[in-house]
Design brief:
It comes from Catenulispora pinistramenti. Keywords: Cell membrane, Hydrolase, Membrane, Protease, Serine protease, Transmembrane, Transmembrane helix. It holds the Pfam family Peptidase_S8. One of its GO terms (biological process) is proteolysis. It is a single-pass membrane protein. Helix 2 packs parallel to helix 5 and helix 5 crosses helix 6. The longest helix is centred in the C-terminal third of the chain and has 34 residues. The strands form 4 sheets. The protein has a 7-stranded parallel beta sheet with strand order 5-6-4-7-9-10-11, sandwiched between helices. A two-stranded antiparallel ribbon has the order 1-8. It has a two-stranded antiparallel sheet with strand order 2-3. The chain starts with a strand and ends with a helix. It contains 8 helices and 13 strands. By secondary structure, it is of the alpha/beta class. The chain folds into 2 domains: 328 residues, Rossmann fold, CATH 3.40.50; 40 residues. The chain is globular, with a radius of gyration of 24 Å.
Length: 390
């Protein structure tokens, strides 16, 4: 199992064709220019530089357009990662105590590596006046499940335990920004357990496309949303894994989010940071449509994505680029769910239910005004005839 950052960061262990349950993982890898520097102990330095400009990912997705309908309130998103720094100003009050499976290195609300804090920031960072960056679902609550030690390693067994723990703690969406080269019984069983409890799992696809076009896990398990990475130009990132298991893509190149130990921001790249854009959008949908099941939420995200002009799902883009506004506001027919190769796709009405109500009220008001006009004209005509008007 490997982390989703840019560059190769380790390898899953195989022995004679038999998949070992304990697949080692690492989250340490070369970040994008401007990434916070790591210390000799792999820990990031405190982030003190605040970047006020609006990041390209938030410009592209414009999640604030959906906030008039929902900010993701009442939805818990589990971040299975290196922990989340709960003291970061833009996350204060939105991080639960969580659970650490590696207690020797600290609680789940501490994050030496900074990886989990970046992921959590993309999901639920609070809007602040004068700062362009904010999470896609600022009303959501983060449940940190720490599975990585300060050396950046974990196992598929611990990842499986984390999925079960997140499910038991009430998470409705789970973000996993790490990959394994092969399936394992523990991981597969844990994914099935979460799905049986109506939990939607979103996972990064991985960053080894330049070395080999691999199928990765848990992204490739049925029902899991596998997320690839795109650049600011809209092209699939060179390192992003591709293949038939890709469901959606999201910004993942030179992504700005929260650093640890202060109010500052950092940059990094990889499918690790594409996945939380999708997880946060799922939180928006689960908040606004609380009766939808996890498979229905997945279908909605795919149907409302910005589809490429290709046969779908496409090996590089899947069903397309995640679209938070359309995911919340599109009015879909019951049959409007993705079907591989189905072209054209269902027509979407992007008027929200609220807008539809306003439209109905507008028609009702116009009809009432017309009735008043007709009655007024009738009275005027009657008086005109009495006075001999022509």
């Amino acid at each position: 199992m490997r982390g989703g950052r840019g560059g190769r960061a380790g390898a899953g262990l195989l022995a004679g064709g038999t998949v070992l349950t304990a697949l080692t993982a690492t989250l340490i890898g070369p970040g994008a220019p401007g990434a916070a520097a790591a210390t000799a102990q792999n820990c990031q330095s405190p982030a003190k530089t605040v970047i006020a400009t609006l990041p390209w990912a938030q410009t592209l997705l414009a999640p604030q357009r959906a906030w008039q309908f929902t900010t993701g309130a009442n939805v818990t998103v589990a971040v299975i990662d290196s922990g989340v720094d709960a003291g970061v100003p833009q996350l204060k009050g939105h991080v639960l105590p969580g659970l650490s499976l590696d207690t020797a290195d600290g609680p789940a609300t501490a994050d030496c590596l900074g990886h989990g804090t970046m992921v959590a920031g993309i999901i639920a960072a609070q809007p602040v006046s004068g700062i362009g960056f904010a999470g896609v679902a600022p009303g959501a609550v983060i449940l940190p499940i720490r599975v990585y030690s300060d050396t950046g390693t974990t196992s598929s067994e611990d990842m499986a335990k984390a999925i079960v723990a997140a499910t038991g703690a009430g998470a409705k969406v789970i973000n996993i920004s790490a990959v394994a080269q092969a399936s394992s019984p523990d991981l597969a069983t844990a994914v099935q357990y979460a799905q049986a409890h109506d939990v939607l799992i979103v996972a990064s696809a991985g960053n080894d496309n330049q070395q080999a076009d691999e199928v990765t896990y848990p992204a490739a398990y049925p029902g899991v949303i596998a997320v690839g990475s795109i650049t600011a130009a809209g092209t699939v990132a060179q390192t992003s894994e591709t293949g038939g298991f890709i469901d959606l893509v999201a910004p993942g190149d030179t992504i700005l989010s929260l650093g640890i130990g202060g109010p500052g921001h950092v940059y990094d790249s990889g499918t690790s940071f594409a996945a939380p854009f999708v997880a946060a959008t799922a939180a928006l949908v689960r908040s606004y449509y609380p009766t939808l099941t996890a498979p229905q939420v997945k279908a909605r995200l795919e149907t409302t994505a910005d589809h490429p002009a290709k046969t779908l799902p496409d090996p590089q883009y899947g069903w397309g680029v995640i679209d938070p506004y359309r995911a919340v506001t599109a009015i879909l027919t019951p049959a409007a769910a993705p079907v591989p190769g189905a072209i054209p796709l269902p027509q979407l009405n992007v008027h929200s239910p609220a807008s539809a109500r306003h439209l109905s009220l507008g028609f009702a008001g116009a009809a009432g005004a017309l009735v008043v006009l007709v009655l007024t004209c009738s009275r005027l005509l009657a008086r005109g005839r009495e006075r001999g008007w022509r």
